[in-house]
Amino acid sequence: MANDKADAFNDAFEEASRDEYESVSVDRAKHTCSYLEDLVSEDEEIASFTVAEIIEHLNRCL
User: 5-11: which pairs have CB atoms within 8 A and are 24 or more residues apart?
Assistant: First the structure.
């Protein structure tokens, strides 16, 4: 990931934190990373999904 994209993601991730406790956002990152790694291990094509496609998938699950 290019530095600009990484910085933008980090900024967005921090802004999306809904709890003032840092451990909550670290736990959220760990859970999200684990979930995405599991998805990719089940189907490598998922690695090429856009964020919008992942959000669409998650919304279907809710």
Answer: none
For the stretch 11-59, pLDDT in tens is: 777 776 555 556 667 788 888 899 889 989 999 898 999 989 988 988 9
CA end-to-end distance (rounded Å), the chain = 29
Q: Which two tokens stand for residue 44?
A: 């490598």
Does residue 4 have a pLDDT over 60? yes
> How would DSSP label each residue in 6-54?
HHHHHHHHHHH--SS-HHHHHHHHHHHHHHHHHHHHH-GGGGG--HHHH
In degrees, to the nearest 5, what angle opens at C-alpha 61 toward C-alphas 35 and 32? 20
Contacts of 40 (CB under 8 A, 6+ apart): 46, 47
